[in-house]
Write a structure and sequence with these properties.
Blueprint (H helix, E strand, L loop, with lengths): L8 H8 L3 H9 L6 H14 L5 H8 L4 E6 L5 H16 L3 E6 L4 H13 L4 E4 L11 H8 L4 E4 L9 E5 L1 H15 L4 E6 L3 H16 L9 E4 L4 H14 L5 E4 L5 H10 L9 E5 L3 H5 L3 E4 L2 H17 L9 E4 L2 E3 L12
Parallel strand pairs: 1-2, 1-3, 3-4, 4-5, 5-11, 6-7, 6-8, 8-9, 9-10
Antiparallel strand pairs: 10-12
Length: 345
Amino acid sequence: MGENRTITIDDVARLAGVSKATVGRVVGNYGSVSDKSKERVWEAVKQLDYQPNLIARGLRSQSTKTIAVIVGSIRNTYSTALVYAVEKEAQKKGYNVLICTTHEDIEKEIKHLRDLSSKKVDGVILMSAYRADGNIDEKYREFYTSKLPIVFVDRNIPGINRDVIQSENFTASYKATKYLLDMGHRKIGIIATSNFSTVQERIKGYKAALTDGKIKFDESLIASVDELSDKMSRKVCHEFLEKHPDITALYVLNNSLCSGVLLELKERQMKIPQDISLLVWDDEEYNELLDITTIEQPITEIGKQAIRRLFELIGEPEETTEFECKKLNPELIIRKSCRPPNQSK
């Protein structure tokens, strides 16, 4: 047998001395097979290192023991931690995990959902690329409302009724903004990603804290970055600080933007917190290393709850009529990147 030839079900049947149908029943875990035949089949599978075709097996058992996670970018800290948490839980139940990235492109997201549906995956955990102000195209609605179990994480899609597991963005953002206000900051600039539902909730929390602190909201103090890259976040931060040199604190709503902001501050020789206070969403090792105050999301718990809910949907698809939005509380990690503005200049 040539080294490069794919081992087939025929090879297993021949070595085990049973029919192809018997091998199929044993590997696919369906139908009735004697213990003696099972032993011979599994011994042949082991000897030949046979990799059964999960998709073909799924056509019979209605399960491929595979789920998919669709995220914007695997470079994002949130996405990486989410995938890790989901994979750990999936492996406990013998499931494989496919990882798909959209690069925040709706067309790519639809293509992934179409492909995954045709590949008969058992379910999907989805961090959608849909913007908070966007309306879903009716021709795409079926991909989100079909029988394929889907659990949304982090972001939801307006008008689509599915389970959502996310952080309590509004309350955490309110708390972070109040922390800066209580220090005496009045000009707090925001650097944010594009118009996702999570970002909108964080901005609402920021606005509410300003209102309660009797501070007038200034729309021009919010700068938006359309592309998640150091180059773009640095450019936006540069233009923002040129227009608003009097801000005393920067509040960054996505840690993926943080390194670009830090590069711009370094270029300007602005020291943290002496010249400007900095507060960032999501925690990474370098945040701790640089003593940056952050809002740490419970990403591991979000991943665990998302996959547990997905398994419920996979197990009882016809019985599920109620969907809910679960919100878990992030934690404000106070370090040394913020100080009162009167000590900053």
